[in-house]
Amino acid sequence: MRNYLWIIMSLFCSVQVTFAQSISGTIIDETNNPLPYVNVVAHNPDDSTYVSGGVTKEDGSFAFPVPATNADKKYSLVISYIGYNSITRTCHAGNVGTIVLTENAKLLQEVVVIGQRIEHKANGYVVNLKNNEISRGKQVPSLLAFLPGVTVENEAIKILSRSPHAIYVDGMKIQSNEELAAIPATQIESVEVNYLSGVNESANAKGGIIRIKLKKTQNGGYNGYLQGGVTDDFNYGYYGEKVNNAFNARYGNLSICNSIAYNRKKIFSKIEEDHFFYDDQKHIYSDVTLNDWYKVFYDRLNLTYDISNKHSIGVSQLYYTNRDKSHTETSYRKDDARYLSSLYTPERNDKYQTVMNYTWNISNTGRKLSVTADYLRNDLTINQQQTSTEAVQGNSYTSQNTDLLRIKPMIALPIAKGLFSVGGDMQYVHYREKQIDVKVDEMNASMNGYQPALFVDYSGTLKQRMQYEVGLRYQGNIMNVNTQGIVNKNDYWSLCPMVSVMYMLNPQKGHIFTLQYKRSIEELPYSIISTYKHYSSPQSYVVGNPDLTTPVNNELMAMVGLFQKLTFFAGFVYISNRIYYDTKVDTEQKDVSYTMPQNGSRQYVELLGIEGKVNPFKWWQLRARVNMMFNSAKTESYRVNHQAHWTFQLNNDLNFTQAFGGTLMFQYEPKTHYLDVLMKPIFAVYGSLYKTFLKDKIECRADFSLYRKRRDRITTTNAYTKLSNDHTREQYVNLAVTWYFSGGKKVKIAPTTQSIQEYKLYEDDRK
Questions:
Q1: Which residue from 477, 405, 401, 406 is spatially nearest to 445, judged by alpha carbons?
Q2: What is the C-alpha separation between 580 and 597, in angstroms, rounded?
Q3: 664 Cβ partners below 8 Å, 6+ apart?
Q4: pLDDT per residue as tens digits for the range 349-395
Q5: Torsion angle of C-alpha atoms 478, 482, 488, 493, degrees rounded to 10
Q6: How does strand 21-28 pair with strand 94-100?
């Protein structure tokens, strides 16, 4: 491994060629907050010809090269930003220090941003949403559906048709969809979308990253919002309620950010199933009705203290709890007789997280040292109580406790015309499971896992048109699983490179080309090794497999953007030892099927997509998308080639006036095969309406679903066929009122402490 590091260091150092002089500095506002994405351009003061330029980073800093010349050479520096007064300053090459921009109140009121203000990067883009009307009347998931390359499919957020590895809000990794859905889109300052995750993430990070930055206090010492809402279903009645609150403040050198939410919601479904078992030539017909009330409460508190202008420490504390009481009633016919079965599954999930961070901004040119320590505890208890008119009863209890500790030091250094980062990463996982079942003896399982890693990364710019990023991560995946005294070991080490290139084909017209490659390994999440049988109905259950080996992913993504209106993307993903879910018949219960994760020999996925946006009228923005996925796989149970999966989406954003508007979304997916499942077509129409009052301090919003056809499925295996028809009608309206508040003197709010890990569940991706 030491030889690897010497090779890596040599490669990166080799790029340090002789370079020209540069102009650098930092842009802030009147409250000392850094301003990202500010245009900074250097001109020749004699004839006003363009010399060089760039935009500021997240911390407000900028640096760009200028031709090497005598030390007395002067430049005219022009600094401009929407909503602020432009500045022109004469300077020499070197660091010009800190420059303050002042707000132009009149311009802020008059400016109407029609399209997003986008800064393209080597691995994606950053969109500045400040003063952008597309944020009005939306929650975060609805807003993301209007960004390039991002889709929301059945409430699942995807980047280039793939699930993201992580979503961050102010550096905090989101632990649940409830956290994301609780945030009004008007609170967002910027969104960064990475098509593939970088080497500073874990080696198991496949897919992209979304980083959301919320607005900080600009005109007051405190700000926040309070939101309440209720939901009613047209078919099933009252559906639930929610309350969300966020508060940001500053006292001296201490910044306080707190987010708290409560959500209570009903889940209802009605499914008709038909099982046909080949060996016994037996049909089992069933009607399955699910009634489920779940409650979610979380509180996230961030404290940041500025020791000095260069040193800061931060602490973040999260408490998350979920109470779920699922009641499934099954009426099924077997051997010409009808039986009733009831499955009651109360579930409790608690998460506790503490994150500590120390940051040293060594210089204004970008040199920075950070150390983050993250502890996460997840406790899950499940009680299953089954009764039947056949006098068959079964009760089971399981508890799963997981402790995760991760420490990540990293240093960033500006070198030549780019930024060099190097760091270490160490995660320890301890998992314990206890199961009590009336049919078997008490079972105990445990796992100790380690993920040590080192990584290096370099990003820079060539000739103002090309941005690039190259990185390398060396990581181990070590797991020791003990089930009832039987020990299984998994020890896998991998070298994971990453390369990203973005070239501006025509900056004036917005033509760009992006190409990315990454190699990653899949960790084996703690839930996938569990031998606990989780019944979804009396006829089927899911069970884990502790004998799995580590899959390896190779991802290649390409994207072309034209006129800032059309986007084409293509991708190829090759997975060796792919984990899939195999469906079999229980040898002890011939009329019960189960699914278990297995290793397949290979799988590859081809991705294609096109999306475009138009503005038929000033108040109407329309974005259309077509995504295609072609799946091929070879496993022990089956072999499939080029299974096609299509998705069509049409998103409409309507801003009739400054205070009134809404959205209308259409989604259609035709019949498709995925592995051993045939999925019938689905169709959905949903949207929202909003109205603001009292100069946007009060917002009333109605989210609604006019129609949604859920998925019908046919699963075909060597042992049986299962038909599942979902007759659930999903038509609802959610009414919400949000109050935005602010006050106090102008202050600077420090950035919050970042979390770097999360608890994961491994699920059957055919759902």
A1: 401
A2: 5
A3: 652, 654, 685, 687
A4: 999 999 999 999 887 667 889 999 999 999 999 888 878 776 556 67
A5: 0
A6: parallel
User: In the chain, pLDDT over 70 holds for what percent of residues?
Assistant: 87
Contact 601, 584 (CB under 8 A): no
The three-state secondary structure class of 13 is helix
Residue 527 confidence (pLDDT) above 70: no
DSSP state, residue 178: H
Q: Which two tokens stand for residue 160?
A: 């280039």
For residue 751, pLDDT over 60 is answered with: no
Three-state SS annotation for 508-533: CCCEEEEEEEEEEECCCCHHHHCCCC
Give the phi and the psi of residue 412 in degrees, each rounded to 5. Answer: -115, 135
150-156: Cβ within 8 A, 24+ apart: 150/193, 150/210, 151/625, 151/627, 151/647, 151/649, 153/647, 153/649, 153/667, 154/667, 154/682, 154/684
From CA 459, how far away is CA 415, in angstroms rounded?
10
∠ CA(116), CA(191), CA(227), 5° rounding? 100
Judge whether residue 245 has pLDDT over 90.
yes
Q: Distance between CA atoms of 122 and 120, rounded to whole angstroms?
A: 7
Give one DSSP letter per residue of 206-253, joined into a string.
Answer: -S-EEEEEE---SSSSEEEEEEEEEEEETTTEEEEEEEEEEEEEEETT
**Spatial separation of the C-alpha atoms in residues 410 and 372, rounded to whole Å:** 9
Asked if residues 27 and 60 have their Cβ atoms less than 8 Å apart, the reply is yes
Which candidate, 593, 605, 582, places its Cα nearest to that of 766? 582
Residue type, 341: S
Type of residue at 664: L
Interstrand relation of 87-91 and 394-415 (parallel, antiparallel or unpaired): unpaired
Contacts of 268 (CB under 8 A, 6+ apart): 233, 236, 290, 291, 292, 728
Confidence check: pLDDT of 534 > 80: no
160-211: per-residue pLDDT in tens? 888 888 888 887 787 777 778 788 888 888 899 999 898 988 888 888 999 9
Q: Give the position of tokens 């859920």.
A: 710
- Mean pLDDT computed over every residue of the chain: 82
